[in-house]
Design brief:
mainly alpha; about 100 residues
């Protein structure tokens, strides 16, 4: 068998089974048996709301980044240089007379 192997979970980090049991025991002492499910439920709802808001924020940032990309491409051409035409558009014609 492997010696020194500690039970750990990816979402918990380096907390082993003894530490986890102590934390659960303290939570039981503080909140009591009847209140503990309510506390766990409210914590779960709060975590879910935080996750949803973080996802919305990430989506908004990505949307703004996509809107900025075409503007950067146009400004990268410079004021004196001809702009490249996209598919379906005609390139501007420089008429000097």
């Amino acid at each position: 068998m492997m010696e020194g192997m500690q039970l750990s979970y990816a979402f918990i980090g380096g907390i082993g089974l003894p530490e986890l049991l102590i934390v659960l025991f303290l939570a039981l002492l503080i909140f009591g048996g009847k209140k503990l499910p309510e506390v766990a439920r409210s914590m779960g709802q709060a975590m879910r709301a935080f996750k949803d808001e973080a996802h919305k924020l990430k989506s908004e940032v990505e949307l703004e980044a996509e809107k900025e990309e075409p503007k950067e491409a146009v400004s990268a051409a410079g004021p004196g240089e001809p702009q490249k035409a996209s598919a379906g558009e005609q390139a501007p014609v420089d008429q000097k007379g």
